[in-house]
Amino acid sequence: MRMRKLFSVFFLVHCFFSLFAQKSSDNPNSPNVIVFMVDDLKPNLGIFNDSYSKSPNIDQLGREGMRFNYAYANQAVCVASRYNFMLGKRSTSTGLYTFGVNFRVVYPEMETLPQLFKKNGYHAESIGKVYHVGHGNTNDEDSWSIPHHGEKVIEYIVPESDNEELTREEALFENYNLYVKEEIDIKKLPRGAAWEAPDVSDEAYADGRIARHAINRLRVLNENKKQPFFMAIGFIRPHLPFSVPKKYWDLYDKSQLPLPEYEIAPKGSPSFAVKRGGEINNFKPIDPYSVLPFEEELKRNLIHGYYASISYMDKQLGRVMREIKNLSLDKNTIIVLWGDHGWHLGDHGIWTKHTNYEQSTRIPIIIKAPGITEDGSICNQTVETVDLFPTLADLANLERKVPFQELDGKSLTPLLKDPSNLVKDHIYHSYIRQDYMGEAIRNKRYRMIRWTHLKEKNNIKYELYDYENDHQERVNIAKKNQDVINKMSKLLECYPTPKRMITNVSP
Questions:
Q1: Residue 20 pLDDT > 70
Q2: Which of 386, 371, 459, 453 is nearest to 416 (CA)?
Q3: Is residue 75 part of a domain?
Q4: Looking at residue 180, what is its pLDDT?
């Protein structure tokens, strides 16, 4: 008890000096920045023309800023995508593709986006899931002015959901493989439920508590008018498990929600390109040995849970947005909504991410920049996660003094001022599956994926999809469209050779 009190005193002292002892920004009119980082969020939102989704608060943000209809993650995996955002560099530039690799050990001098803001006089803090903490990864404390405020990703209230035992996913997200001395075979732990919907308050789950903490912190930060702030707020849902209050499930009639239309691998695709199983197998009642596709009732429950989770998260985001306006911070605060990657809802028979396909890589991005973006503006150019680092630095007029850390993205400020400006006509993303490096070029019409064997460099396979004629990626047309393959391959050759995957580098 005494140690807990001492820690509390230390934390308060640390917060005080972080807030008031840091140098103030040279420009008292420097904009604040708030980034909403949402886990596993694809553009299944009203503002992105999903007629089923009930997401009024994100929709309102979209009506107040600019939405990007062709935004993509650079890698469809949580930890890597968040490094892409924070470092402004693709995984192919860093070798940071997977879990269990803390970038600060590999690149101790690398400057993160919040560090850049700190060096320019900003207060920087994070709440919720910002960096991926779990699976062997930890937070980067150097990024923040005060200690990170974390929350649980895997959370149950209904006793039957976990039988009041430590589940596989809980152990992974709580880094049992790093911090628990006794040996634990995580694969032998019980599986938790894929969803639950008890009649509880919003703050019974993490996202509600994240919103409350963010609101309280905004009130504190607003007292110090001389120092601008950078705040990252990481909401957890719609990541599995779909554990949200009952009232959000009640918003939907699951019998009316759309079922996947195409549940097999694309015709002519490499056998390894489609992912089966994965994290979904760590949840009950999924049978990891079942033959796909899932039974209709299971599919409906999973889809219902995903939409309910979006609505729950949306409500918490709305609470924060209302407080921003109540404090009159909206007049000088840049607001960004970003999903770290997409999520397959049964298309191709996939119920997770970790692919190079559209449903796994397409993400929502909305940017509201007072005095720059027009209300309800739309950008139909291709953009990617790594573009956000230079964009926010540009909008805040920050100086970068790390010449060795060349950013991979481009500032989207010209698009924010006028969406007809041309910044880029394609994006690049990647994923490693089995023994192949998959590099993809996506423009508005096509996606080409080049799979290169990691050891046999002449062993190359291609996928090509035409989204004007085949938005569900039913047929790989690479063999019949060599001219398109050649053109897009030339674009691919403009990018550096992907770095080898770095593994098992934890603090």
A1: no
A2: 371
A3: yes
A4: 66
Give the distance from CA 423 to its chain's centroid: 23
Helices (H), 145-227: 159-162, 168-173, 176-179, 206-223
Residues with catalytic roles: 78, 132
The 10s digit of each residue's pLDDT in 91-101 is 999 999 999 99
Residue 316 belongs to what domain range? 29-421
d(CA 1, CA 365): 44
- 178 pLDDT band (50/70/90 cuts)? confident
State whether the Cα torsion 410-414-417-420 is positive or negative: negative
Q: What does the alpha-carbon distance between residue 247 and residue 199 come to, in Å, rounded to a whole number?
A: 7
21 has a pLDDT exceeding 60: no
pTM: 0.93
Q: Determine the Cα angle at 41 with ends 221 and 257, to 5°.
A: 130
Q: Which of 182, 166, 163, 183 is nearest to 174 (CA)?
A: 166
pLDDT at position 507, please? 63
Give the orientation angle of helix 296-326 with respect to helix 206-223, to 10 degrees: 10
Whether 445 is covered by a domain: the verdict is no
- Between CA 269 and CA 324 the distance in angstroms is 47
Residue 492 lies in a domain: no
User: In angstroms, rounded to a whole number, what is the distance separating the alpha carbons of residues 392 and 412?
Assistant: 9
Residues found in the chain: 507
